[in-house]
Amino acid sequence: MEDKEISYSEEDEPKSLLPFLEEGKKEDKAGQFSDGEEHWEDYKLEEELAGGGNMGSKNPSEGVPDEPGSSMESLEHCLGDTNNIQPMKYTNRNYIFTLQRNLKELNDLAKEKEFVVQKSRGKLNTCQQRIKMLAKQLEYVDMEIEKEEESGDVAALSRFQAMRRRLYMELEKEKDFELKIALALEEDMLEMWQIETEQGKYKMLHEQLKKAEEELEMQYQERAKVRIWKEKIAALQAEENQQSREKKEEEALKQYEEKHKKSLEDAKRNHEKAVCFLQKSMARVHEKNAKEEVKIREHMERRIQAVLSLKNSITSNREKLQTLQVWNKAVAFEAKKREMKMREAILAEGGNVTKELFLHKRMLEHEKEKQAFQEQQKSRKIEIVSKILQEKAFIHKQKKSQSRTKAIKAGGKLEDSLMGRKKAWQCIEKTGRESAGAISQQSWCSPSACSSAGEGTASVGERSENIPQDVLSESSEGEKERDKTLVGPEFPGLWSQECDLHKVSKEDMDLKQLATSVDKKEIFKKKMEEFQTGIFHKQIVSGHECKRCTFYSKPSCIHFKDFDVGQTYKKKITLINASYSVNFCRLVGISESLKDFISVHFDPPGKMSAGMSCEVGVTFKPMINETLEGEVMFMAQTGSFSVPVKCTPKRCTLALDKELIDFGSHVVGETISRTITLTNSGALGTRFKVQASAGDGGTCIAAKASSGRTVTQLFSDHVPEQKGSNSPVMSVVEKKGQIYPDHSEKLTACAAGGEQQRTEMSRSSGFVEQLDQDVLNSRSDLDTENAHNLVGLSPDETPVEIMLGKVTEGEIGPFSSVKLQVLFVPAIPGDVQAEFVITFDNSDCEPLCFSAIGVSIDVPIWVTNPNIDLKICMYDRLYQDCVVIHSRAKTTLRLKFEVCKELSKHMELLPKTGYIQAQSSFSVQLKFLPRPSLPEDAGSYFNEEMRVLEVPVTILIMDKAKKVNFTVHAIVTTSDLEISPAQIDFGYCTIYEAVQANITLTNKSILPQEFGFVGLPEFVEIQPNDGLGILLPLESLTLDVIFKANKAKEYSFELTCKSEINRQFKLSCKAVGVHPPLELSHSLVQFAATALNGVSTATLYVMNSHVSVNHFTHAVPRIGSGDAAPVGPTLFEFCVPGGCPVTITPSVGTVLPGKKSLIRVSFRPTLSDQLIREEAVRRLGRAAAAGAEIQDRRKDDKRKGKKLSISKQQSSKQFVRDGGHKHLTGSKQPTAEELNPDSDAYMAAQAFLMRSFSGRFEKYVIPCFVASGHIDEKKGSENLSYSPYNTLYLELHCPAVAPAVVVTSDNGKNTVNFGDVAIGHRMMKRIAVQNISPEKLELGFSVLNPSGPFLLVRPVGMLEPGENKTIIISFCPDEDKRFYETLDIQTARTNLTLSITGHGVMPSTVCSVGEVLDMGYVIAREKATSTFQIQNTSTLTLRYSIQLDSLSPTRDKDQQRPPSFLISSLQRTEFVGTQNYNGLSVFSIFPTEGEIFAGKSQDFIVTFSPDHESLYYSDRLKVVLFGKRTAHVVHLKGAARDQPMFVEGGVPLDVPIESLAVTPPASSQEAPKGELPEPVKSILLMLEYIEGEHSVVPARTELRIGAIRTTQLASKKNVEFSFDSVPLLQEKGFALGAGKGTVERGQVKLISVSWVPPADFHADDPLLVTALLTLKSDFEECYRILFMAKVVSANAPTE
Description:
By secondary structure, the chain is of the alpha+beta class. It is 32% helix and 30% strand. Strands 40, 41, 44, 46, 48, 49 and 50 form a 7-stranded mixed β-sheet that branches. It is elongated and about 190 Å long. It starts with a helix and ends in a 6-residue tail after the last strand.
């Protein structure tokens, strides 16, 4: 729709719109966002589609092939057409939507008003009908009123008048309501007409809206077409892209297949190579493993020896300690004796004993200290002298090894060290003269420099003579030890105490620091003075002193590794403040040995907080190719610290992978090759050379007497010295003529070390010369010994058998390895041994040695495998092998093969003779069939214990009379399988169960054997694995043989076990099958996992299917082949063992033939009572211990805080408290047996064990005994046939788990006992449950009996971990019996079972009065009381309440009924009679409510208090129990008189309800004088004479005259009565018991009246005689007595 059209419609819009339409217009102008939010997303989508048409038409055209070009062009053309469509603007669309919404609201409002009008009309019609009905009722009531006015019934008249008033009121209300409805209806109609007129005004708007909607729908359809065209274009483009993608995938797949083929080919080639290398590597691995095993054995032997030696040393030390203790005791005893003697001597002289003994002890201690100090001085002197000698030797070596330029440069340092050494000697000589006491006080001087006053200075030569031999031997160590000495201190110990003050240990102290000059000592002295004066401060933060090093270095050591001379190296380290507070550090310096090569760049950072760091730069420029060590020293606020520096040049680190090559045994003429690897793990390469250890290395010596020989190769004693004196020194062989008879041992003698430096030292020349002389003597001895062994053979006659390969010398680079080849060419039979040495050009590398050994054999023939191992063989089994024989002879040889005679029956070689061609091989077949007699025949060739057979086999060379032996090894074992026991007796087994027997199957062989039980009968099963398996050597396996009888008979059978070699082993079995008379539906019950105190229940049946003894039609119950069991009732009894948490109900019963009995099995796991008691006792013990500890602490606190100003009252109270605590702590704890199950400790222990319960699984087998027959009451169970073989067994699997939910209320009991509850009464109980699992639980509940008395009032849905919630259960019994149900609280894993019990009791009471309680006559406005009793004969306490009908809340409704006198006596239900005028109840009862305990009674007092005269006071009393059940109903009656006299009897002539008219009392109506008073009441006496009886029996009746006892009246006269017309009565046949008389107060007089018909009496007419009865007392009353008599026939029916 265009904008003009929209604006035109707005102008034409009528001005009489409703307010909501005007608001809609305002919203269109001002708040379009709020109305158009719903359509904003649609609008955006439409704008994008409309505006993006050009873009959508360009993209699909790119890359489209030629074939679909026409379709693409047509689609683009369509898109171009659709782009010309002008979409409707957002404002127009929004206006349409708003208008549509407003019109819809107008229509809804019209419908709503129409509905309201219809509803109002319905109400109006209903109201009008109601008015008509009330009018009719009013007319009817008016008619009734007129009738009652005519009849004079005042009561009915008043009732109808009240009804008319009520109807008038209702009619007026209905008319008012009708008027209101009519007004509301008019208003609604007016509004509806207004709305309809407004709808008529907006018809044009409706039409415009329809047009706008149609136009909008057209636009939507056009846009949908555009979207469809675009989707088609995108689909075509996607199809083309898919085709191109498929082509690319095909090409990629082809390339992938080609690559895959190439990779497979490469993998095959690599696999072939890997297999070759793998075999070699596996061989090396096997060899390595064998060596490791040998090492492990040797290590274990050494450990065993060490343990034994340790044991011996412990024993010897123990003996020494015992001896030492005895000696100490003896010394102490002697000292004591001497002290006693000294005491006696001093006392004899009269001196002071204490003083003399004290002086004596001080003198002894002083002498001991003096001796110890002297010994310490000597040891220190020896250490100083030894270090000085080492330094001199090193200086001499350094002068010769270094060049002159280096020597000149280093001369200054050496002179400094010599000066320091001279000063050190002067210090020693000077301090030696000082006293011991003075020197010990100096904190900076070492004790080693101190000597006693008596000792003089000694020369260096003399001191050197006293140096021990082990100290001097240090000077002859290798170059490494000398290097360590170079960087070590000159004088250890001189400043050790000073170093201790600096907290530097002796072991970590660098020796070079101790060899510093005197200037250095002064620096340290200043440092010490600074420390003593307090420059260094201890760090104490929060009470903790920082005792460790306050600065850490990262890295901890500065290591310049593999440096080159002339290069410059730089490193940075980080110093971290590790102290507790702010600290600072500064550089002190570096070691003397590093000053020329290392410079440190350090900018002091100032104060550093804890954890902060700073950097230090270290630059190293090496000038000499030597190892340098030292440290960079720093000073901190808390003391000095240092960072070690280590500089190591490039070195060669050479090693061999093995030191012994064992070639084994080989035949003369063969060539065997082995390799050994030389590895350099250092950064410096060198040149190496491999040579024999002597000039004639490799020569062999033929030993005629023995087959072994040794070639010992030594270095020459005189090797020309190389430049720089770096030639190696020849090693000294420790043992002479060492021979290696065992090929598995390693050679230990090898050449090592270089040429020893011979330096002239003035202090140690004698020692070095002596050492050199010893070495030379040992060498000369070896030379002469070798010369003696080599006599008889010249070098030309002894060929070299062990030689080196092609590589004998070359270069080995840094971090590389070289393989050296060693060849073994056996030439002469015997043992061969050779030794080789590898020398290096680098003087720092020591020569390496290795040895090679082998054995040469010289025979024309030889066997490839001289030891044929047949492994493990079994008896009576044939084993074959092929023996290959090789010949090195040049002619044909005739061979004969022989086996020893003892084993000729068991082993043979085929053929027994043969010819072997020249330089060829020959195969012989070896057959071995061991017989069982082999141990007896073989003799010494067979070891019975180890079962090892060694058979020597000889090959004879017939022409040369030579023989070659080879040995056949075998381990011979048996193939027997032993079954134990050999026979199984299963005994009696029912057909419903399986009997299991265990057998042990043992493999007697040392080979594993497969076995299997085959041909098993259908009633036998063998487990595990169905009787199949493998037995390891000498293994025993326990098998379960399960027998299940299928019928009642005797079984005897054999089981066959076969081995893998088809050997059979028999096992005989027998059993008796029993068919019992009863059977169980399930013999196995598997309970689900049941929580503690939960219940799991399963049901099964005991069935008696024995209905006939005909064994031809079916199997009958019998034992084995015995007689069949009789048909009849069969008894069963389940015997549950004690302590089993299983209940079976019923456990005893009888099953008739063809019937079955339901059995319920319940499993209720609980904690053991004994376990709970023990845990409770433990907890009580811990609590008592904790309480005692607390009490002790309190007592201690009380003692400490006690004050003197405590009053007597407070002290007495404290005494009472202490006494109470003593009583509690001193009371004896209960034992486990004495603990009460209801105690808190018991309950706490039970809760703890339940929460910590981890679960258990138990199995129970319950026997069910069966007996046939029936029980006679007279004979009992004598006629029962019982056999124990008919016993059935029920197996129960009972898993118990910890509960997820526990009951926390009622001490954790899972039983909810409501106790005794009255029938119809409801009781509720709350049960608290807690989730003790770590998971959130969703609880479910089982369904209680819907017809039962129990009801789950409030369940619980979810329980968080540890949460408590309450469940409410109610109990309302409807029968007099006990009720029991279980409620399962279900969780995902376990259930918690609550046992709910309750006893419904019928309340029973006994009332002492009957149905009527007559209070008698009472004077009006006086009271009379009566008591009755109700006894509770039930077992529960009864809650009662007393109700009176006169006080009932429904009393007013009952009074609306017609009066009872208008209703027949049979229909009367009114029990409430005359009531008091004052509104108070005539009858009152006390008590009105309360409880009567079981077996008790309650007395009730009824009070009768009338306020006016009436003979018809009555009420009904109800005894209601629990507010529901009426137990007793008592009708209360009473009469009140204004006069203290009454007459009663006869037939009543008045109604029992008082009249509404108030009549004056009879006493107020006074009779005129001289006349009798008006009778108060008429009494009718009916007498019926029965005619037709043989004996004359008069008709009789009674009349009662009473005098009321009262205390109000002043006069207490008796009542006198008299009848008039007595003669007339007698004439008519009436006889009175008393015509007149007197009645006392409180008494009742009975007057009998009899009648006999007179002679003139006519039976058809009844006789009526009137007489007046006058009563006189203080007042006078008169009663009219009507005597009516009639004759009744004896046969006539009585009414």
